[in-house]
Amino acid sequence: MLKSYLKLAWKVLWRRKFFTAISLFGICFTLVVLMVASSVLDHVFAPQAPEVRQGRTLGMFRARMTGEHSTSTSMPGYQLIDRYARGIPGVERVAAFAMPQTVYSYKDGQRIKSLIKRTDAEYWRVLDFQFLEGGPFTDQDVANGAFVAVINATTRDRFFGGPPAVGRTFEADGLHFRVIGVVPDVGILRLVANGDIYAPLTTAKTDAYRRELLGGFGGLLLARSTAAFPSIKAELESRVRTAPLPGKEWTKLIAPAESLFDFLAGNLFSGRNEDRSHPERLWAVIIAAMLLFSTLPAVNLINLNMSRIMERASEIGVRKAFGASSRTLVSQFIVENLVLTLIGGAAGFVLSALVLRALTASGLIPYAHFALNYRVFGYGLGLALFFGLLSGVYPAWRMSRLDPVQALKGASR
Amino acid sequence: MTRHLLKLVWNRKRSNVLIAVEILLSFIVLVGVTTLAVFYVDNYRKPLGYDVENIWTISFEKHAPGRSSVTIESGPEDAAAARKPVDRGFVGQRARIAQLMMSLRDMPEVESVAAAFVTPYSSNTWNSDIEVGGKHHRYGFNAATDDFARTLGLEVTRGRWFSRDDDGAAWTPVVLNERLAQEVFPDKDPIGQFVDEQRPGDSQGPRMRVVGVIREFRKDGEYAAPENFLFNRNRLDDPDVEVQPPNEIVVRVKPGTTAAFEEKAITRLRGAEPEWTFQAEPLTQSRETSHRLWLAPLSAAAVISVFLLIMVAMGLTGVLWLHVTQRTREIGLRRAKGATIVNIQRQLVGEVVVLTSIACLAGVVIIVQFPLLDVFSAVSPMVYGVSVAISLVCIYLLSMACAWVPSRLASAIQPAEALRYE
């Protein structure tokens, strides 16, 4: 039975090539846009190497000092992380990293521009880098202020023209570093793990950062389990409240522990004096945007299917006259729509892969590697199936209840 | 004629509703993209306020090893925010910055040097607002040195820029841009006016007094909406005032200076201040980076909507084609009664025009809510108007083109053949 349905569906698709092409184009294009958008989001937020423990990591990404009359927002300072985030029950490790800074090196009259990220040694234990060469710097290196550095593959190529790099030295920002490890490139949008050069915190030109409450640092709190998140957040909040503020015109300081997604949502959607971030608002916007975008292709598909079913009134009439039941007719249309959607889905899958590969190769976002997101592909295909069925089955069902004589006459208004 | 067409459309309302919805959605998508484009074009045409060629910005990190951009929001009572001590050790820092500027000034390529909290295309922001006569005025804030106007080529339209004359004044000298000046003092000469009100019981520092007005200063560049701007004087040699020290230096170089200037300048600065980290960039390059950031969302939206419209056009053509084949008898009858091919085509295209008009009317009603409710306050009603007009033209052209192809098909119908079914 199914075999004859499939055969029929195939024939119908080929009979009207133009309409098949329109439907396929719509399904395919919708899927490609959804996939590309979601894999860009994934690239920024989803756990991926080296941030494999992102699921149980909280970050400190923002600090806001509020006074009677003004508000100053920036990244937290080192002191805030060092003094208040360490030793919270339920936290396994605390890492601090400075926001990447652009530094210049001059090599044979050419300028090399790199992002340098200064971190403590814990950073390498919270994140899980796969080293191409050598290894990370140690607590000892950080304590001694050793001028050693981990560099990424691209920086290795720029300075040394390829491997091996460990043991060789390079100049950046007027300082000389010895390479002790090489890691793969990390997408520049990965706020936590990106960087061209990773160096110990103590190689900073001054140690003024140690006394700063605000500015330039990010913290990572690796929890033993996600169950401890609420208590960690509450503990950090009450500790930060005890921090001495720089002047009496400042009344409040907040530096919440939150996920990167919450941080961004907070940046976008929190009011000037709101302490809480609103991840649900960002979710709502993303989902609304995707739904809104899918509406037009869906209406297009429904419209087309509705009109096409009228065209086939006489075919339905004949089949009814020969005793086909409504159920048989409806299942035939379901199979037809399934076949169409699956072909469109396959084409969309291949095309998305191509677009993502082109996007990766274009270097529009340095070091970014975009991968297909199978979960979103599933949702997109589900959505296409849903609209396909809705648009195909409803008119088919109405048509299948028509009087065969009427249907044969083609009176379908 | 129109009434007749309306009736025809009404008769087939069930299938026409879907077509109308499709046209409505396409219209809204089109308005969204064109609004963004028109907004950009509109902003681009307005004066920028400063020169871009032959100017370099040099930014420096003073303490943290990390790059950090600062966003400051000040309330109305804190108009003299620049005088608030945010940090200690500012006096020392200002003296060091003055040293750096001096060493840059010695370079033969350099014409002039200035420093400011915010420079063009920078990611630092300082927003504040003032209350004058019970009305709030929001503005971007900057604190700049005496040479800033000359270095960046700001055009002073009224009064003067900061100078030595302001030393020892009993007030804080400020310079506004024309936009803010006209907003606060619509029918007064702003020069010499105080922009903050002295309230009884206020023990604030000196009041802000306007010494000059500049044409414009659009910190975020050509594509951003112009905004109000207020400058404070940033004195590097005054040990008494606790002013937020500058974050960036701007340098005007002689025409023809090459990129090699950068290495020379950076080496010199590193020598003068080994503890700080410096970055130098020509303003033309900052502009390019900023343009890319502004244009990326527009180009992504444009590509997606072009594909959406292609899809809609194909779908619409297909649907209308099917409608024509279903209406063979009706068309045959009209032909038999003497209607010409042109008449038939006119009728079919006319029906689609009626449908499009209905959809666009609904669309305009929706779009009008945006300026009425002031959803995006930076976008002026004029921008919405122009983009709606452009979208209307596009949508009518698109739907008429989609109707025209099937209507040609209809004209090929032979009356005798069509009526045979009757």
Which short descriptors sum up this protein?
heterodimer; A: 413 residues; alpha+beta; 4-stranded antiparallel β-sheet; 19% strand; B: 422 residues; alpha/beta; 2 domains; 7-stranded mixed β-sheet; 49% helix
Which structural class matches the secondary elements of chain B? alpha/beta
Number of strands of chain B: 11
Q: Please count the helical segments of chain B.
A: 11
Parts with pLDDT < 50 across at least 5 consecutive residues of chain A? none
Count of DSSP-assigned helices of chain A: 13
User: What is the typical, i.e. mean, pLDDT of chain B?
Assistant: 83
Q: Tell me, rounded to a whole number, the average pLDDT of chain A.
A: 84
Separation of termini of chain A?
31 Å
The poorly predicted ranges of chain B are 76-88
Structural class of chain A: alpha+beta
What is the alpha-carbon Rg of chain B in Å? 31 Å
What percent strand of chain A?
15-25%
Oligomer: heterodimer
Major sheet details of chain B: 7 strands, mixed
Give the amount of beta strand of chain B, in percent. Answer: 15-25%
User: Could you tell me how far the N terminus lies from the C terminus of chain B, measured between alpha carbons in angstroms?
Assistant: 27 Å
Q: How would you briefly describe this protein structure?
A:
The complex is a heterodimer of chains A (about 425) and B (about 425). With about 425 residues, chain A is of the alpha+beta class. Chain A contains 13 helices and 14 strands.
